[in-house]
Structures are given as C-alpha cells and as structure tokens.
C-alpha cells in the first residue's frame, strides 16, 4: 500500500525526531522533516505531501505565518499545528491562518495519531482531495476525473465514484465483490453481483476508452476487482 507522506516541521529536534520515529514504525506513513519554517518552504517547493504538521513557536518564522504562506501557494492538504499554548484565542489564530487542527503540548502520541487519521478521512471526503489514477486526477468531492491535457473532465456517477474510491483505498489489492457491494450499496439484499458487474463495465468504458492508454486501470481478480498497481 502506498504510504501517506507527512512533513513534520519543528525546531525541537528531540520532539521532531521522536515523533518521526514513532510514525515510521506504523509503516503507513513516509515522514520528511524540517527544523524550521524556511527549510520547510524549500522542501514544499520541490515536494508534495498528504499532510503537514507545523510547530507554532519557531525562531525563524511563526508557524501560523508559515501556514498562511503555504496556503497562498495553493496547497490544500491538511495542516495540524502544534503549540505550547492552550488558549482559545491562540487556537482561533491558528485556525484562521489556514490550519485544520490544533494540538496543545504536551500531548500523547496516540492523540496526535488519532488527529492525523481523522484529517486524512475528512480530506478524502472534501472537494479539495485529488488522487492519481493512471492518466487522471481523481476528485471524489466533485465526482470527476481530470486529464492533464486541459480537456473537459469526465463526470462520474455517485456509484462509480464510490467504487473507484474504495478500489483506490485498497491500493492495488483485490477487493471482493461482496465487500464492494456492502461498501457501495450497503446491506441491501435486493442488490446482486450482476449490478456491480454492470457498474464496473460502464466505469471501464468511461475511463479506459482512450486509444493511447496502454494499461487497464481496473483488473478482474478471483472473486473481485483491483486497481492496476501500475496506475497508482
């Protein structure tokens, strides 16, 4: 499964490196570190991330100012602020700078981890979320697949969007027909696998009809379906 990329920015080396080590142990995240705001801006200029964690009190720039600058660059991914202050006014200033969440020090790792996962879940449902699927940028919030050639985006139905979203979540691993039916249609005894197969067929016709497309995006696996790992 592809790892979610997190940028951790804090001038406290012990805290930053300790958090990075703990997150790395989970094997679901890829962690990059910056010891200050200016270093972070340089890294962000050359790399993309799925989530960022900024300390508020840094010597070269306030973390809230860093957050504002990152947002001005058009970066929409979740940003969590870490602060040694725990007042309502301070929290409001952080959220108004463009942060999605605010965690006061000292905090437990499990609390921060829960906040990180909550932000990933919320962002995946937002209109700002984009995911790469083959030649497309998949936007679940608007039910669209955008090509890089500036052409009009492909519109998906609600069911097609949810099928693609769930296959993407599996990151190339096979998903059974029963699991897809449960996730996309819910526990409805009137829905059969034929309904799913019809929707998969229509989705394939819609997204795999390009003459120059060299790979199939949706693969039929024993008992289910998967996204082609070459498309991720």
Count of DSSP H/I helices = 8
Q: What low-confidence regions span 5 or more consecutive residues with pLDDT below 50?
A: none
List how many beta strands DSSP finds: 12
List SSEs in N-to-C order: EHEHEHEHEHEEEEHEHHEE
- Which secondary-structure class do the elements indicate? alpha/beta
Specify the biggest β-sheet: 5 strands, parallel
The percentage of residues in β strands lies in 15-25%
The end-to-end span amounts to 10 Å
- Rg, Å, rounded: 20 Å
Mean pLDDT: 88
Pfam family, one: Response_reg
GO biological process, one term: regulation of DNA-templated transcription
Protein name: Response regulator transcription factor
DNA-binding region: 128-229
Question: How would you describe this protein?
Answer:
The chain contains 8 helices and 12 strands. It is elongated. The mean pLDDT is 88. With 232 residues, the chain is of the alpha/beta class.
Outline the secondary-structure elements:
Elements: E1 4-9, H1 13-25, E2 29-34, H2 37-46, E3 51-55, H3 63-72, E4 79-83, H4 88-96, E5 101-104, H5 109-125, E6 131-133, E7 136-139, E8 144-147, E9 154-155, H6 158-169, E10 175-176, H7 177-185, H8 193-207, E11 218-221, E12 224-227
Parallel strand pairs: 1-2, 1-3, 3-4, 4-5
Antiparallel strand pairs: 6-7, 7-8, 8-9, 10-12, 11-12
Helix pairs in contact: 6-7
């Amino acid at each position: 499964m592809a790892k979610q990329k997190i940028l951790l920015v804090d001038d406290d080396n012990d805290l930053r490196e300790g958090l990075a080590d703990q997150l790395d142990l989970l094997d679901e995240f890829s962690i990059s570190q910056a010891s200050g705001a200016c270093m972070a801006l340089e890294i962000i200029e050359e790399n993309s991330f799925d989530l960022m964690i900024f300390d508020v009190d840094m010597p070269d720039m306030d973390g809230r100012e860093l957050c504002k600058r990152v947002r001005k660059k058009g970066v929409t991914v979740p940003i969590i602020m870490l602060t040694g202050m725990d007042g309502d006014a301070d929290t409001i200033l952080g959220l108004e700078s463009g942060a999605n969440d605010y965690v006061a020090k000292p905090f437990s790792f499990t609390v921060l981890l829960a906040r990180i996962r909550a932000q990933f879940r919320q962002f995946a449902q937002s209109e700002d979320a984009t995911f790469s699927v083959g030649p497309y940028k998949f936007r679940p919030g608007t039910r669209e697949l955008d090509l890089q050639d500036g052409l009009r985006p492909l519109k998906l139905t609600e069911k097609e969007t949810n099928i693609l979203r769930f296959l993407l979540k599996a990151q190339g691993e096979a998903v059974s027909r029963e699991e897809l039916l449960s996730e996309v249609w819910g526990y409805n005894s009137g829905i059969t696998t034929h309904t799913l197969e019809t929707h998969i067929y229509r989705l394939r016709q819609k997204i795999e009809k390009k003459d120059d497309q060299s790979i199939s995006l949706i693969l039929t696996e024993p008992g289910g379906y998967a996204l082609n790992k070459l498309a991720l």
